[in-house]
UniProtKB/TrEMBL annotation:
SUPFAM superfamilies: Cysteine proteinases. This is Transglutaminase family protein. Pfam families: Transglut_core. Residues 41-133 form the Transglutaminase-like domain. InterPro entries: Papain-like_cys_pep_sf, Transglutaminase-like. It comes from Streptomyces flavotricini.
């Protein structure tokens, strides 16, 4: 898929902020530990993806009622929905100088009802011109997302006939609709009620 970066500044996809807080000691320590088991940027990106996908359960699967949104909190609690897990993976990638951003899909039930926005990431390895989407949501029966820089293997390939959408925008910071849902929810049941059904564009520098 051809992604459209929403920032004209390539460094925007390496920035530290309140959500993607890769200057936090826990993020740095986790990145250092993962880097020590790899041999370069590609291997690190794959290991970081698999760590977030497999070692941090998706709260909808685990039933954990806590809502995390800051990358360091996701790593600390080992818990989060797709948006939060994406924040953690982007932080780990940026901590090692790998450009990474956030992207989204609009998904539905099998009959096209109950639309909801799903979050994932895209990365670009040093020296590459290609952004590659990855989905660290977490696998389960019927979901088999894997790391790939060529043919995407996402958790949820979209079904346009049901009104599902791959949003092409690549954001350097979380979309406000996704972030507000996380910040405004005291627990998982509240978050389920607050999840956006769609997102619009918003200006980024």
């Amino acid at each position: 898929m051809q992604l459209i970066p929403q920032s004209t500044e390539t460094d925007a996809y390496l920035v530290v902020d309140d959500v993607i807080d890769h200057d936090h000691p826990l993020v740095s320590e986790t990145a250092d530990a993962l880097w020590g088991a790899t041999g370069g940027a590609y291997s690190y990106a794959k290991v970081a993806f698999e760590f977030v996908r497999d070692a941090i359960p998706h709260s909808a699967d685990s039933g954990d009622p806590r809502v995390s949104w800051r990358a360091s909190d996701v790593l600390r609690t080992r818990n989060g929905i797709c948006y939060a897990k994406s924040h953690a993976l982007v932080a780990l990638l940026r901590a090692r100088g790998i450009q990474a951003g956030l992207c989204y899909q609009r998904l539905t039930d099998d009959d096209g009802s109950n639309p909801v926005v799903h979050g994932l990431i895209a990365l670009r390895l040093p020296g590459s011109a290609h952004w590659a989407r990855q989905d660290p949501r977490g696998n389960k029966p019927g979901v088999d997302a894997r790391f790939s820089l060529a043919d995407e293997q996402l958790a949820f390939p979209v079904r346009p006939e049901l009104g599902e959408v791959d949003y092409p925008e690549l954001y350097a910071t979380p979309h406000p609709a996704a972030l507000e849902a996380l910040r405004d929810s005291a627990d998982l049941p509240a978050l389920r009620r607050n999840l956006p059904a769609e997102i619009g564009k918003f200006p980024v520098g």
